[in-house]
Structure formats: C-alpha cells, structure tokens
Automatic annotation (TrEMBL):
PANTHER family: D-MALATE DEHYDROGENASE [DECARBOXYLATING]. The keyword Manganese applies. Residues 4-345 form the Isopropylmalate dehydrogenase-like domain. This is D-malate dehydrogenase (decarboxylating). It comes from Billgrantia aerodenitrificans. The lineage of its organism: Bacteria, Pseudomonadati, Pseudomonadota, Gammaproteobacteria, Oceanospirillales. Keywords: Manganese, Metal-binding, NAD, Oxidoreductase. Its cofactor is Mn(2+); Mg(2+). It catalyses: (R)-malate + NAD(+) = pyruvate + CO2 + NADH. It comes from the Bacteria. GO terms for molecular function: tartrate dehydrogenase activity. Pfam families: Iso_dh (PF00180). Belongs to the isocitrate and isopropylmalate dehydrogenases family. Its EC number is 1.1.1.83.
Length: 352
C-alpha cells in the first residue's frame, strides 16, 4: 500500500526537522516492505509570501485535500508579522480542514533530563479545541492609532464545537490505562462561554461512566502539572488554554524540541496534519543543531493515523533507544547535530 503525504516544511528549523523526518519515514517504509510513501513537497512558506504575496496559492487547499495526511514543519519569520504567518498558513489549514482536535502527548523519554522533580510520572495527553474559542479571529480595532483606541478579541464557543471536542477527549481517555480526564476552563472569571464548556462536559460525561473525571481552573492546573504531575492523565481545554499548557508540558518533559502534535479531523472528511509543537526557532535556524526528535515523534503519530501501527511502534522504540543512548542535541544538554541524530535513528531502524 502507498500513502500520499503532503509535506510543508515552512520556515526556519521546520525545513531541517522535516527533511530529517522524511528520511526516517522512508527508512521505516523500506524496513517494512509492505507500504511506501509518496511525498509531495509544498513550498508554502514566509519566503513564498515575501516573493508572491501569499502563503497558499489559489486552489491550494483543494489540492491538499486529496492527500492522506499532511506533515508540517513550522511557520514564522522575522520579516512577516506572526499574526499574518500563523493565520495565512497554519490556521488556514487547521480551520479550512476542520481539524478541530489537536492532540499533544507529553512524556519524559528515557535518558532525557527534566529539571522537574517527579517528572518520570509525566504521561499526559493534552486535547486542545482547535477550531474556535479564543482563536476565532473575531474582533476588531476602532480609533486606530488614537489615544482612545480599542481592540476586541471575542471568543466564540458553540455547543457543537464544545460537544465534539469533549466527546473526542472522553474517547481518548477511555482508551488509556488510567481513564482519567481533567476539564480545564476559567469559568469563575469568565461566566459565559467557559460556563457553557463546563456544562456540556458534564452532559457528555454521562455517556462515559468508566472515565474518571475532575475539573480545574487553568491557573490552578499549572501548579498541579508542576507539583503533582502523577495526578494528570488527559486534559481537555480550549484553544488558548491548551496552547499554553502544552508548551509547559513540553518544557517539563525536557525540551520544546521533543514534543509532537496531531491536528485531527476525526471524521476523516479532510486530511489531518502532523507537526512538531515548536516554531521556526530563529536563534538556531540554519545551524544544523535543531532537535529532530519532535518531528520523529510527530511522524510516529502520522504513521499511527495511517494505520501503520507496527512502524509507529518501531519508530517510538528507536526514539527511546536514541534518547537513552545519550546522543542528544544541545537543547537537551548534548552536542549532537540534527544529522547525527537522524543517522543514528535510521541505522537503528535498519539494524532492528
Ligand atoms: P520556537 O518554538 O521557535 O522557539 C522557542 C525556543 O525553543 C528557542 O530558543 C528555540 O531555539 C528552542 N527550540 C524550539 N524548537 C527546538 C528544536 N527542535 N531543537 C532545539 N531547540 C528548539 O518559538 P518562538 O521563538 O517563540 O517563535 C519563533 C517563530 O516561530 C515565531 O515566528 C512564531 O510565531 C513561530 N511559531 C510557529 C509555530 C508553528 O508553526 N506551529 C509554533 C510556535 C511558534
Ligand atoms: Mg503554542
């Protein structure tokens, strides 16, 4: 069988880690022998925007919709405002393809040194609502540039949008050994949309009596993540809250360079998109020292999504042997380059 994967490396270290990830995916397909990848590269990037005034060409999303999955690097450039790059590329795909479930696992890989006490207890999945809420793009500015200028950023929460993400999170929690789900909102200070989030959560909970639930305010959950990491299994939270919590989760598990993300359209009407959680990292771009492990773990999520579970497990095992071996990039305290790590993983896969 063959899987058609659209590859959008984007900007900065996105180019480096996705190139590395493609090599690893090809090595896995080679090893397995019963599937292969047809990669198609897309140059949708800030470079393209600067030259042509657009990230995505006309008809681009239509073309992308024919693929089995999307493998994405990062977008962001010092020459384009971040709200432009994010909205014109990444959010255009996530929202255009109704990838409403953003899934972010966090775990301390063997040999990785987290500075957090009790970090080996971290085994979390953060489920982020990825289609509405604080990132609806709803709002505006009046009296621009004047002293009494006003900007509004209005969150939009719909019952449908809330219900489907809760249902997704419950199903995910149900599939895990501990079957725990923590609802995170800020429904004391925000008394409309957040209260609706809470209400719908407890309605959906009735269909999942075997899932152990609790709730936490977003500020309080940050302290719980640091002080009692073992009490958390799956978290479900809004677009903004989960965005922040998942960066914290990544840092607590060792480095932003390790963490993966899946942007899922669970119904399968559109392709889902897989990306490392980190951005384009101006400070290290072009130096060949970016940690590619985040993009490898992302590749494992992509494989699982395509039904290639054996290859996904093989890749995760290779990643764990790699981190345990101490061959680590600078963000983890080592001296290895992107290339060193990529070669080590590919040889390990070949040797197994
Ligand atoms: P960032 O994630 O690019 O970098 C934050 C810090 O983590 C930097 O010190 C960087 O060197 C380090 N880091 C990140 N990934 C690493 C890796 N694989 N290996 C080693 N070190 C790594 O976030 P930052 O600096 O806030 O944003 C830079 C640009 O990326 C901005 O334009 C931002 O908008 C964009 N961005 C894009 C994202 C996406 O495409 N999904 C996500 C986050 C930021
Ligand atoms: Mg983020």
């Amino acid at each position: 069988r063959s899987h058609r994967v659209a590859v959008i490396p984007g900007d900065g270290i996105g180019l480096e880690v996705i190139e590395a990830g493609k090599k690893v995916l090809a090595a896995l397909a080679n090893k397995s022998g019963d599937f292969q990848f047809e990669f198609e590269d897309f140059d949708w990037s800030s470079q393209r925007y600067i030259e042509k005034g657009e990230y995505i060409p006309k008809g681009g999303l239509e073309k992308l919709s024919k693929f089995d999955a999307i493998y994405f690097g990062a977008v962001g450039s010092q020459d384009v405002p971040d709200h432009v790059s994010l909205w014109e590329l990444r959010l255009a795909i996530c929202q255009g393809f109704d990838q409403y479930a953003n899934v972010r696992p966090a775990r301390v890989l063997p040999g990785v040194n987290s500075r957090l006490k009790g970090a080996d207890e971290i085994d979390w999945v953060i489920v982020r609502e990825n289609s509405e809420g604080e990132y609806s793009g709803n709002g505006g500015r009046v009296h621009q540039g004047l002293p009494d200028e006003v900007g509004t950023e209005v969150s939009v929460f719909t019952r449908k949008g809330i219900e489907r993400i809760h249902r997704f999170a419950f199903e995910l929690a149900q599939s895990r050994p501990r079957k725990k789900l923590t609802l995170v909102t800020k429904s004391n200070a925000q008394r409309h949309g957040m209260v609706l989030w809470d209400e719908v959560f407890f309605e959906v909970a009735k269909d999942f009596p075997d899932v152990d639930i609790d709730r936490e305010l977003v500020d309080a959950v940050t302290t719980r993540m640091v002080l009692k990491p073992e009490t958390i299994d799956v978290i479900v939270a809004t677009n903004l809250h989960a965005d922040i919590l998942s960066d914290l989760a990544a840092a607590l598990s060792g480095s932003l360079g390790i963490a993966p993300t899946a942007n899922l359209n669970p119904e399968g009407d559109f392709p889902s998109m897989f990306e490392p959680i980190h951005g384009s990292a101006f400070d290290i771009a072009g130096k060949g020292i970016a940690n590619p492990v985040g993009s490898f773990w992302t590749a494992a999520m992509l494989l699982e999504h395509l039904g290639e579970n054996v290859a996904a497990e093989r890749l995760m095992a290779a990643i764990e042997r790699l981190t345990a071996s101490g061959l680590q990039t600078r963000d983890l305290g080592g001296t290895a380059t992107t290339e060193d790590v990529t070669q080590a993983i590919c040889s390990d896969i070949e040797a197994q």
